[in-house]
Structure formats: C-alpha cells, structure tokens
Amino acid sequence: MIETLLPILSEPGQPQRLFEALDPALAETVGHKLLTMLYVDGQEVSRIYSNMPEAYPVFGRKPMGVTPWGELVLRQQKPFLGRDAQAIARAFFDHELIASLGLGSAINIPVVYDGQTIGTINLLHEEFFYEERHVEIARKFAPLLIPAFLEARRAGAASKA
Q1: DSSP secondary structure letters along 88-151
Q2: Do residues 39 and 45 lie in contact, with contact meaning Cβ atoms separated by under 8 Å?
Q3: First to last CA, the chain
Q4: Fewer CB under 10 Å: which end of the chain, C or N?
Q5: Are residues 61 and 46 in contact, defined by beta-carbon separation less than 8 angstroms?
C-alpha cells in the first residue's frame, strides 16, 4: 500500500493530493472514522487535514500545553494507543466531542524528522477497535508525511514574518 503512495509525492497539488490518497489507504489498512493531521511548530500545533471538517476543521495555530500525551507523543516520539473512552478522556480535553461522534479509541503517530517531532497522524475509531498491531501498521505511513509537515512549517514561519 505504501509503495502505491510514493509516486503521488511527485504529483502537483501537494500536500492535499497526498492527504486525499493517504486517507483511504489508512482506512483500508488500519481503519478509522476520524483522521486528522497536525504539524508541530515550536510550542504550537496546527491541524492541516481532517476528514471531518465540520467537527474538526483545518484552522490556524494554537498553543500546545504540557500534557502526558504531549510528553509521550511529541517529546518521547512514541505512539499513543487509547483503546477505550477512559483513555480518551485522560488524554484529550475534547473527549466529550470525540464521544459524541461515536469514537472511543485513538492512535496518534509522531512524524519525526532530523530528531524532531514535526507532526502527528491521528486516527480515531469506535471504542476497543484499535490494538497494538494497528499502531505498527500506522507507523509505517509516517515518513510519507515528512515533506508535507516540513512545508506546513515553512509556510507557517513565512506567514509569521
């Protein structure tokens, strides 16, 4: 599956073209109801893709607080696996919105480049859907997003100037 996505990186319309191909590929291989992608820039994060823009729109930057989730995913560069609603409630301030969408499990995969976490892939599904094997599959997709997250950071820095 990943091999079929690699040629898409050379096509015009990046990164949206990659996101549109990655969404169904992740749905088929890992499974998800909600897919978002956040890029990290210093102490801020920004959502650059969402397959549910009504609930989770693509929008500007927001400050990133110090949380156990941030320590694990952003600083230690380890995936987060939340199997149930309790794990979601402990990890995410918006757990009520997540539950209202019928979602109760999550995987967050750090995208790492040059030793830095530059973004995350965020997959959510119904409670108890995800297992460790899903994390291992999802991790393989992370390197495909390095160019998209680097470009998002570059564009964000240019807009601050």
Answers
A1: HHHH-TTHHHHHHTT--EEEEEEEEETTEEEEEEEEEESTT---HHHHHHHHTTGGGGHHHHHH
A2: yes
A3: 39
A4: C
A5: yes
Record the tokens describing residue 129, joined without a space.
């859907």
pLDDT at 136: 98
pLDDT per residue as tens digits for the range 54-98: 999 998 667 677 889 989 999 999 999 999 999 999 999 899 999
> DSSP assignment of 55-82, as one string?
TS-----EE----HHHIIIIIS---EEE
SS3 13: coil
Residue with token string 């978002």: 36
Tens of pLDDT, residue by residue over 5-64, are: 999 999 999 999 999 999 999 999 999 999 999 999 887 889 999 999 999 999 866 767
Could you tell me which residues come within 8 angstroms of residue 46 by beta carbon, excluding any fewer than 6 positions away? 38, 39, 59, 60, 61, 62, 152, 156
The domains found in the chain, sorted by start residue, are 24-160 (3.30.450.40)
Q: Please enumerate in sequence order all residues whose Cβ is within 8 A of that of 45, keeping only pairs 6 or more positions apart, or say none.
A: 38, 39, 61, 62, 64
Tokens of 15: 């990164």
